[in-house]
Amino acid sequence: MLYGLTGSSGTGKTTLGKRVADELGIAYMSGSITEIAKRHGYDPVAPMSLQDRIKLQFALLEDHVTMIAKAERPLIVDRTPIDFVGYILGEIDMHSHMRLSTEEIVAIEEYVDLCLETTVKLYDYVFVLGQLDHYEIKETRPADNRAYQTHTQLIMQGCMSRLHGRLNYMIVRQSDLEARVETIHDTLVHRMDDICKERASSAHIH
């Protein structure tokens, strides 16, 4: 039972993840990209070449999978591979091919597919958080660039259409924290109940 929160920077993933985990009495894990990136020698919000961005993104996904594999269940995580898709595609523009080799362009496409398949394989439910009206500036976040935030947000939401029918997900449009907590709390309670019933039924059959 693995549940993830996704959304552009500053959408409240960490705050919400901690609250919901605490109310449900389940494990919470921070998927801080900053900490992982620093272990690999990168500052994820600093300017970098597309070549370095590709290397970083593959490292982020590998470490993410390793971390959640070791964590207890049920577990809620404040990042998912869907976020990684948003970060790498957010760097791509009409003329990116002039700065990348054919192999590197193919690698980005393969990375996107790998992130999507990893999400389907590992996650039971993903909640995509909508943007908030206020963006809290932090050293570990991208600059206060609303256009970039909207760009990555729409990429992440677009990913869900690619996974429709293959993954349980919800677009959380509320901006009020308490409303968000209630929505995700209630959804996960129902989902965990359903999983318990399915397991009990399966055990009875066998």
Descriptive keywords:
single chain; 206 residues; alpha/beta; five-stranded parallel β-sheet
Give the structure's gist in a few sentences.
The chain is α/β, with parallel strands linked by helices and 206 residues long. Helix content is 56%, strand content 10%.
Helix content: 55-70%
Report low-confidence residues grouped into runs of 5 or more. Answer: none
| Series of H and E elements | EHEHHEHHEHEH
Rg from alpha-carbon coordinates:
17 Å
Averaged pLDDT, please? 94
* Percent of residues in beta strands: 5-15%
Task: Measure the end-to-end span.
Answer: 22 Å
Helix/strand-derived class? Answer: alpha/beta
How do the strands line up in the largest sheet?
A: 2-3-1-4-5
